[in-house]
Structure formats: structure tokens, C-alpha cells
């Protein structure tokens, strides 16, 4: 690998580091002072995408992979809340991604653009699992903030639930809404 | 899907949520008061694993997938720093994972256990890319903390670098050590 | 005052509360994990606007007043960093403000819209002082983050400095760049 | 402007920066681990002062201006909670302000001292609106902390409400106590 | 004192500084994003140990002293939650302490080792008061987190209560469970 | 123990919990956004007091005990920075303590008042070790903040050093100023 390629990967890696600091902005409107980062959200989306895919007979690793990159554009455009919609046209995530991967060597650039393109097109089962995982993660986080005392999360639960497209995701949502965030401790 | 299966996925998802709060403990020893979470670390490890795999001719999605679960055991055992080694025997991550996935339906459980087993065995190119990504992410984060003023990160840089096994990862590390964390901004 | 008017003021006040939680997003790109809020920025912009106006022979209270509302639209559209510009058209702040003040009684609504309109038009000395204060506050904060160890703030200093339009603001910037953030302690 | 004057404004601006870090101490007694800063409080007090003045037929910009400086002394004396009163005599805010503005050029110094003096005297409608805004902001914040799960805020609501002097402020308080902090989202 | 002795005390003091950053990990499982540090816990344990000892007719200063060091090993092994127990053998705190005090001069080393040894042996009234204080502090903190809106703390209350061995501690726990965390404000 | 006594201990314990949230205010003036709590400071002061006493031939447990309570009054009066001195008369810590312990049963109240009284009088070796530990802890923390990139801590180092009264403390300070905060890791 050339130094230019290595340097491009390093630069892109530093850019992805912004996701560790960027906060999920919708929760500020609910009243959460220190909400989770986009990176924290994205990791669980990827994990959930794999679980949904496993149950839907799709490819878990591919579904997780699409999820891994689904918010990676936010290093440049941040996490825009729903209230911004009347005032801003939604940016084209594939276009942002293409600019982001410009310093990457060819194979690395291609794998990221392909993943974002497939996610945005929403035509494969893996893309649908990844998108359902995105909504489901938000719903689960809303339940967790409610468990920590936060009021006003119902709108987030409702809009996330309404956006689910697979039966598996809806059933997991139903379960998450009625059991404790500490249920895993047995 | 049965309600039991859905409830199991929900419980496991809540458990993964602990990774959003769990801090990377080594940085406390360096002096960082509010270090990044294990989830934040893991997301970038998965992203980096994909990039390394793309350049190594391995499967990016698979490498990312192994990375996605590589620290997921820490919900139960936390992130143990190197200083704990003389006093604690390293837990068996596959065993922890098997307990964690107990509530999951069969296909979901299998995909997670397989990923952790493959990562721990370190016999496939994807496993090696994921492990190199784990070390490289730590090195990149050390550079970022140094950029934020933190002294004393050199030991983390050195031990991460020494553990790298692929030429690609070493070259990215070399680049990251000499360019600015803001180099992506052009 | 009718209950509807009082309720409108209460709702608008709750909306302004979002500014207390919303972070200044550019600093995340520099590497600051926990940057100041938009409210914290805005308060010092207003204070600085008054000081600049006093020295420029403009009305300090009016300049401060324009500054007080200059980022108030960000409750809905958040703080967009420069990197978003190629992908998003800048929203019309007066239009956002008009939607925000819709629940306010007439006099209250008018005073806010007038202030935002005057600030955006940049035709009065007070508007110019407020805008210079906005840039100067960013420069001063950059110096403070550098004092706390953060590297990479120079771009923010340079772009803020370049945007200053009054001689007074430039001289204060020159001073801030060469003296300690603790110089006030004597 | 002389360099001494510019340097004085820079020093004073650095001092005002302490308000961005200083926390409102009363909330620690209630149980809030990470309460808002004095700067965050002050910004909304200034915004509220303008709204109250608009409805009271007073000057919104002037009322906001008095609010802008009403806690600026706390850079030196911090935010003293009510429990300190039996042990400490309340400092003279005008005296503190005069020391703070010592490095400022004459016009800048005068505008700040005049504002603090007018606020402390409580003889103008604008001073009364600013003081009511101070109390009302505290009440609204108490409602917001309660919305985030915090118990024990009633004492802050009651004492803030009891201190209100204008009918407009009381009516806004009544509304804030019965509607959701998210009511602005429509 | 030799320079080696002074340097050893300095090194040990820096090590104890890690307790200021280390978080109490169990609360992450409950859902608390920013829980208190081990140092914050330890201080109140020491204070409570003194109060319990005073009422039990034991030596308050000695009981507090044992509490002061009871978690000091966690600089190296961190705070392991209950869920780690099936996977990790509990480290020997006296052994960790002996390694920690290695750089200290003799008298200083001995006083710390003696305190940890006495606490671990649980044979003196002071050791029992210190251990009860450890459990009681956790219970009181659980009540405080519940007061801040956090659900799911009951398990921590129950297990802490069950571990109490003195009648005094149980009576204080009974009181803490039924009165407000703000009861001290009168 | 009567219920009144138990309830008094519980109330006092809740009051001490405020120390876990209260920040050390001087660091805000230096530029530290999230400084350590008074509880975190106090724990290490107590540990250091014991080490100094061990080397001075004084009673380590007694010295630690005095340190344990030396800032406990700050639940009511907060941590006043040096800049407040011209405007506020220093409160009488023994008087504050007597009010704080009012709900405690007799023996518990006496042990706290005795400790604060002995510390304030500064007539015993243990009181001097505790006070030196207070200053030394501040100096060590300043070194740690400098290690994390913070500039401007020299004034804190100098004033802490100048206040040291024992040779042992001065030698430890000398060592702390020249070795790394990570020197304990070997």
C-alpha cells in the first residue's frame, strides 16, 4: 500500500472519530442533557440489524455492515432533528459518502459507497433489517431514558414503531416496551 | 417468531446498551476524566476492520462483523486494564458470550457465538484484520487524546503498534502518528 | 394577559431551554468532547456586543439584544458546522423565527422578529457589533480551548478574525491572542 | 482604541467565560449531578425579561440588558445557595461589578455598572421584569428537571413563584406548571 | 526523608488519583450514564463508618480509616460488578495493596497494609462498621438515584440491606428508605 | 438506637452526599470545564494525611480523620474561591458543623465536631498533617491537570507549596513536581 493510501485511511479514520463526540440531537429536545453519541447509537443498530437478519433469513454480517455506515455522513452534516425538516432539504447521503471516501484507496472506498448505496436504496432484505434496526434502537433507547426518569419519550417510541417494516422488529419492539431494561440480568 | 424469542432479543439488546455507558478504563489511568465508551471504540474498530480487510483482500463485512462483537462481553465483566492482569485470570470470552446469548433464538445466538469464536481463534484473515483494527483504533484514539492536550499516551501508542500483525495496519498507524486528526477537513 | 398568551410564552420559554443543552458542533470536529452550549456562547456574544457598541458609539443594550436572539433558531435546526455547507442550503433565520414566535402574544412576538430581522440585515451599527461579537466570542473560546490543551483551533481563530468588521473587535482579538485567559485575575 | 483598552476588554471577556463553566449550585442540593451553568441560566433570564417587558409595556431590550449582567459577579463569588445565608453576608453586587470593570475603557465600564446598579435598585419596570425573569427561569428549569425525573424541585418552584411581582410572570408560571416542556413542538 | 521515599509517596498519591476518575460500574447496568466515582463513594463510606462506630461504641477514627482504603485496590483492578463473578476469581485485596505500597517508605506502607488487612479479616468492630458503611452507602446512593428518577435500583437496595450486620446500620437504612434525600435541609 | 437518632444519621448522610456533586470551584477559573468534586478531593486529602502522619510520627488514622471532615461544611456554603475573599467574610467552620450535626445522636455529633475543631485549631501534629495534605492534594491535582493539557495551574502550585508547613510534605511536593502522574505504573 502506498503512503498516500495509508494516509487516506488515517484521515478517514480520524473523520469517523467525530461520531464518538457527536450527540443524537433529538434527545436534547426531549430534555436529556447528555444523550448518547451517534457512534453509540450506530453500534447497537449494527448489532440489532444482525439479530433481525438472522431471524428473517437474511445475511447478518451484511445487514450489520449496512448499519455500520448508515449515519457515517453525520461527521459533516451532524444529526438533524425532525424539527429541521421544514427548513432544510435532506442531504444526499451517497453524495456525502463519496466526498468522505475520496482519500481512501479504491477497494476501501468502494466497500463503503456500496454499503451506503444499498442502505439508501432499501431494496434488499439486509437493507430493510438495517433500517428497522435503526428505528428499533431508537425505540429501545427511549425505553431506557424513560427507565432513567425521562418523561416525554412517547413520541419517539410511536414514530419509531410506526416506521418498522418487519414482523420480527415489531415483535421485539412489543417485548421491549413491556419488559425491564434490566431483564437481561435474570 | 415466538414471544419468548422476541423477549430474548429485547433482553439481549438492553444488555448491549450497557456498552454505551461503560468507559474504556485504561484512559482513566492516563488521566482522561471522561474517556470514550466501549461502544464508541467498538464502532470505529468495526469500520477500521472493514477498511483493512478491503486492502488485504479479505471480506470487509465479515471483518467488521467480528469486530462488532469483540468487546460485547464487557457488559458483564467490564473493560479490564492491563494493570489487572497479575491479579485476575483473563475470562473466556466465548463462555461469556454463550451465557449472554442464552435468551436469543437459535439463529441469532449462533451468529454471535460464531463471530466471537472466530475472532478469538485468530485463524482467518478477517479475524486478524478485526484484531489489528482493535489495536489501531486504540492508537488513533491515543493520538486524538494527545491532540486534546493529554500527555502520557505514548505507552498506549507503543503497545498498540507492537501488536499489529498486518502491513496495512502498520502503514496506517505510521500515517496516523504523523498527520493531524483534522487532516480529513482538507 | 389571556391564558393563551401566557401559555404561548411558557411554550416559547421551554423551546429556548433547548439552547442550554445544544452543543456548539464545530468543536467536536476539533476534538473537544464536551464543548460549551449554544446558550453559553450566546450569553457572552451578547455581553461582548454591548462592550463593542459602547466603544463604537452604538447602543449597547440594542447590540446585546440582537445578539441574544442571533442563534435562537438553533432549537429547531441545531448548530450546523461549516462542513455541512456543500450539502445543505442555509435556512432562512427570519422564517424560522416567525414559526417559533407563533404562540407568543403580539408585542412579544414582534420584539423577537424585529431583533432577528435587524441582525440578519446587518445594516445598523448594532447589528454589526452583534455579528462581530459572534465571531470574537468564537475566537476567544478557541484561545480558551487552546489554554486547556486543545490543538487544532487555529482555523477557528483565523476564520473568526477574518470575519471581523470593526476596528474595535480586531483590537480586542489581537489582545486576546496574546494574553492569558487568566489575565483578569490580576 | 488604545491597546490598554483592548486588553482590558479581552481580560473582562475571559472573566465572563467563567460563567460558562460555573454551575448553578442549588440543584446539587436537589440531587442534579450535572446542572446547567450560570451562563445558560442567564441567557434565558434575558430572553424572558424581554418577553415580560414586551407584555408589561416596558422596554424589552433594556430589561434583557439588565438580566444579561445580573449574575455576572459570580465569576468571583460563585453561585451561593440559600443554605449559605446564615453563615455569609450577601456581597454587594455593585461593588463586585466595579472591581470587575476596572480594566474596561470608560464607556464600556459605565454601561455595565449602570445596568447592575439599575437591576439592584429594583425601581424601574425593566428592573422588575428582569428580576421576575430570574425567578421565572428558575421555576421553568425546575419543571424541566422534574420532566427529566428529578424529585424534590417543589421547594424551588414555590420560592420562585412567591417572589414574582408582576401579573404577567405569575400567569406564565401558572402555564409552565401545567403544560409539557415539549409543548412548543406542537 | 530520602528522595526515594518522597518520590514513592508522590507515585502512590498519583495512583490514588485514579479513584477520582474510576466510576462505580454497577450503576451503568442500572442505566445511570454518569455515576459517581469510587473516590466519591469511598469518602462517604468513611464518614458513615465513623458515625456507625460512634453509636456502636467502637473507634470512629479507626473505622473511618479502614473504610478509607477499602476500595483503594481498584486503581489497578477497577470496580468489578456482580455479573463478573462467574467469570473472574475475586482478587486478593491484601496482595494488591502490598504491590501498591511497594514504593512507600516503611511506616506509610505499614499503616495502609494494616488497615486493608484488618478490613478484609472482618474481625474487629471497626472492620464491621466499615463494611456496613460500605453497604449502607450503596443503599443511600440507590435512594438518591431513585430520587433523581432512576428506576431499577431496588436490587441494589435489597442486596445492600441484606448484607448489613449491625443493628445501627439497619436502622439507618430503614430511615433512609422512608425519608427524603433533602430531609437535612429542614 | 431510637428512630429519631437513625433518622438523624440518614439525614446527615444525605447531606454529605452533596459533596459528591459539588465541584472544586477554583479550577473553573483556570479553565477546567469538569473539575473533580469536593468528595474526590477530600478522599485523597485523607489518604495523604495518613501518609504524612506516618512519616512524621503522628497518628495516621487521626490525621486522616481530621481530613475527612475538613471540607464537609461546603454542603451548605459551597467551595469559595480565593477571588471571593474581598467580598465575603470567611464563615466559621465549627459553627456550620454544629448546625450540620444537630440531627445526629450525641456520640456521632461529638466525634464530628471534635474533629473539625481540632483541624481548625491547627495545634496538634495530626491537624498540621491534615492541613498540609489539603494543600499537597491541590498541588498534585494541579500537576495532573497540567498533564492533561491544562495551562495556568502554576499559581495553584505556588500557593499550595507556599502553605506547606512540614518538611515531609515539601519533599513529596518536590517529587510530584518532577515525576510523571503515571510513575506508579512502573
From TrEMBL, chains A, B, C, D, E, F:
SUPFAM superfamilies, sorted: HD-domain/PDEase-like
Known catalytic reactions: a 2'-deoxyribonucleoside 5'-phosphate + H2O = a 2'-deoxyribonucleoside + phosphate
Parts forming coiled coils: none
Short name of one Pfam family: HD_3
Domain HD/PDEase as annotated: residue spans: 34-148
Cellular component, GO, one term: cytoplasm
SMART domains in the record: HDc
Entry-linked Gene3D superfamilies: Hypothetical protein af1432
A molecular function (GO) term: 5'-deoxynucleotidase activity
Superkingdom field: Bacteria
Assigned keywords, A-Z: Hydrolase, Metal-binding
Named cofactor requirement(s): Co(2+); Mn(2+)
Top-level EC class as recorded in UniProt: hydrolase
EC number: 3.1.3.89
InterPro entries: HD/PDEase_dom, HD_domain, YfbR/HDDC2
Ribosomal protein listed as a keyword: no
Subunit structure: Homodimer.
Name this protein carries in UniProt: 5'-deoxynucleotidase
